[in-house]
């Protein structure tokens, strides 16, 4: 049984096979937008500063 593969995934896989020089460009783009170094101290501070959400966000009383 074959797994489902979207048309976009098929296109990208075939396109990358035909244009291997784009692999480096792909890595640069990923590094720019996604692969960021993680700082555990900052992550911890963000988690500690989080304010719990109200059950109903439009409630006027606290």
Q: What are the main properties of this structure?
A:
single chain; 62 residues; mainly alpha; 0% strand; elongated; 55% helix
What is the fold's blueprint, element by element?
Layout: H1 7-18, H2 22-33, H3 40-49
Descriptive account of the structure:
This protein has helices at residues 7-18, 22-33, 40-49. The chain starts with 6 loop residues before the first helix and ends in a 13-residue tail after the last helix. With 62 residues, the protein is mainly α. Helix content is 55%, strand content 0%. It is elongated, with a radius of gyration of 22 Å.
Short description:
55% of the residues lie in helices and 0% in strands. By secondary structure, the protein is mostly helical.
């Amino acid at each position: 049984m074959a797994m489902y593969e979207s048309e976009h995934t098929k296109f990208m896989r075939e396109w990358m096979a035909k244009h291997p020089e784009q692999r480096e460009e792909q890595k640069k783009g990923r590094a720019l937008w996604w692969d960021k170094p993680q700082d555990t101290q900052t992550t911890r501070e963000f988690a500690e500063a989080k304010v719990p959400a109200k059950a109903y966000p439009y409630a006027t009383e606290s």
